[in-house]
């Protein structure tokens, strides 16, 4: 009789373990169906502001009737008056969003542009958030000292100076990818990659943050598609016959994993072109446009976020956030 009881007890224990195992697997399966961003911890639920809000649901797409505010794949195009800056900043501060800003200052570009770029970034870029500047240069000792605000830091990384400016431009993609992998992803949620020959003039804030962020080119945002300067050489990995928009490589960003994917795609395309003795028309920008054609960005920045003041028709630009600095290619670029 006691043996029967022991056998029954053993069967019961096995059933309990089976039920527990299946329950655990089922809960893990259910959890996999729920987006991570929709799961809130108790402290978030009880905080003053409900962090479950989708900020992009608050965008006013009808605020700018004269311009395009959403793509065909429903990605927002960010313009002034579409968003509430206080709401975006509050949400990202609560989330403790952190941003890396990468910039290359190689050769004569360091003296010509870097100080103005950094000082203006301190005044306008992602204020209120944790920001780390990554300055890539061949002259670390010449990087100017800048007084940084709270939660803001700067790291200088030495890079090789290539003999041709085209190679400097194209090889930055490998450097960005390597640095995201080795350091940035351990410190920051987002990364933005900007050209140094620019100056911040107005708010460039948390409304620009997204999974994968592309910058509309100021000279092409109203142009016909046939005028876009894609690389149309079928021998190049950057080849595009027709695309959606023309994007500017002077500004791109997003979550670390998305920017790394973009940088890896561009670098591999560049290296394959080199093996085939091909060079894309606009170098890394051509490969960037190919990437965004294949992998649609989740957020587009209007030309407010990268404006050329040479353009006389500025009716759409309510706020100038970042401008192109005067170009002196004849004296700054290596041949």
From TrEMBL:
The UniProt keywords, alphabetically, are: Glycosyltransferase, Manganese, Membrane, Metal-binding, Signal-anchor, Transferase, Transmembrane, Transmembrane helix
Q: Which residues constitute the catalytic centre? A: 285 (nucleophile)
Q: Which Gene3D superfamilies match?
A: Spore Coat Polysaccharide Biosynthesis Protein SpsA, Chain A
Cofactors needed by this protein, per the record, are: Mn(2+)
**Location relative to the cell:** Membrane
Q: Which Gene Ontology BP annotations are present? A: carbohydrate metabolic process
Q: Where does UDP-N-acetyl-alpha-D-galactosamine bind?
A: 104-106, 109, 195-197
InterPro entries per record: Glyco_trans_6, Nucleotide-diphossugar_trans
Quick one: a GO cellular component term? membrane
Residue positions annotated to bind an alpha-L-fucosyl-(1->2)-beta-D-galactosyl derivative are 217, 229, 285, 308
Q: What is this protein called?
A: Alpha 1,3-galactosyltransferase 2
